[in-house]
Amino acid sequence: MSFVQKKVADNANVVIVDSRPTRPKYVKGHIPGAISIPDSKFDKMTGDLPTDKSTPLIFYCGGYT
User: Which one, 5, 28, 40, 42, has the greatest CB density within 10 A?
Assistant: First the structure.
């Protein structure tokens, strides 16, 4: 089982951030529980991140291709 799959299955105290464009990619499908903060809007959406700085963040995107 992958690291992220294990965290999701264990309901671990992590925040998973989908940094792909909200439409259509996040809307079409995303990791359960992931929040959408597209890389192009990150500076404007940092308030969506947890205030507890010890909370692990896991980011994922579509890569360069």
Answer: 42
